[in-house]
Design a protein that fits this description.
The protein has one domain (10-306): Aldolase class I (TIM Barrel), CATH 3.20.20.70. It is 37% helix and 14% strand. It has ten helices and ten strands. Strands 1, 2, 3, 4, 5, 6, 7, 8, 9 and 10 form a ten-stranded parallel beta sheet that branches. Bound molecules: S-adenosylmethionine, 6-(5-methyl-2-OXO-imidazolidin-4-yl)-hexanoic acid (DTB) and iron/sulfur cluster (SF4). Iron/sulfur cluster binds next to loops.
Length: 325
Amino acid sequence: MSIIRHDWSKAEIENIYHTPVMELIHRASVVHKEFHEIGEVQVCTLLSIKTGGCSEDCAYCPQSARYQTDINREKMMAVDSVIKAAQEAKDHGSTRFCMGAAWRNVKDNKEFDHVLEMVKGINQLDMEVCVTLGMLNEEQAQKLKDAGLYAYNHNLDTGEEFYEHIITTRTYQERLQTIENVTKSNISVCSGGIIGLGESDSDRVDMLHTLSTLAVHPESVPVNALVAVKGTPLENQKRVSVWEMIRMIATARILMPKAMVRLSAGRIYMSIEEQALCFMAGANSIFAGEKLLTTANNGYDADKMLFETLGLQPRKAFKEEHIHC
Ligand code: SAM
Ligand code: DTB
Ligand code: SF4
């Protein structure tokens, strides 16, 4: 019987991460079976409600105003169009709807009031509502909770030491502070990162160490592979191999057994066989739909085939409330 640990050492994590692949997948799968239904996958949909023009300099991001990408700055979407998109996502089988805004941080203005209305409306559709709006304070987190927010996504993105090579306009500590503010408001935390930014294995281990030693493990951990976008400083970055994704997913599964581990950006590059290995390694959530925030995603038809071929079962909404894991 595995126990939930919050005292992992970097050496232990490094050991797990470097375990030979077959043994690593086996270990992760045993933990997965103990805490989740094998073959059950949560289907989430993303929508960018406020695109582009962001003041931050995140080197991977097509939405930063500092880089010449093909993304145009758009004003915030109307509340009713967003709720319509959520209903469509639900009709396609999604149980969680996540809205993203290209903001450095939340401001107490009309736009935030609109987000609160979106959260209320989508909550009434009986979907798990998630937002990713940048940094926020405790009071703003509480307002989101009161509106019915289920989860808040705020990624650490990479290890603390490597962070300054990717983002200079805010600190790692600020990132952690937002996560703490969200946790205090009893909103589930969704926090993970990206691989393929030019980081070392040891930077990956650092990020997993920070996540798995939080007082409360994130309810969900997205593992993204960089989608190298033209015009960003990382446009020429080499694509990560599927084995690196598998190592990250399996290590996250072993360290944070209860978390939903989400196979996120980069899935578009993967065959069904590669995705199957990720599910065996402990991934149990995906983003569905034609688009992530601004880049292409696998699309409903491809995912219908994925679920049918592998005999996957979509996970029900609100299946387990495990905010404190
Ligand atoms: N502005 C908010 C923030 O940064 O917290 C929310 C939106 S931001 C786009 C959400 C997350 O998407 C980032 O933290 C990053 O992990 C991921 N992301 C952005 N661009 C990506 C890319 N090109 N490839 C992979 N993941 C990406
Ligand atoms: C996360 O970790 N990945 C999603 C979600 N959380 C917000 C975003 C991926 C974005 C990929 C690039 C884009 O489509 O703009
Ligand atoms: Fe802005 Fe978020 Fe993109 Fe960074 S990741 S540039 S904060 S939208």
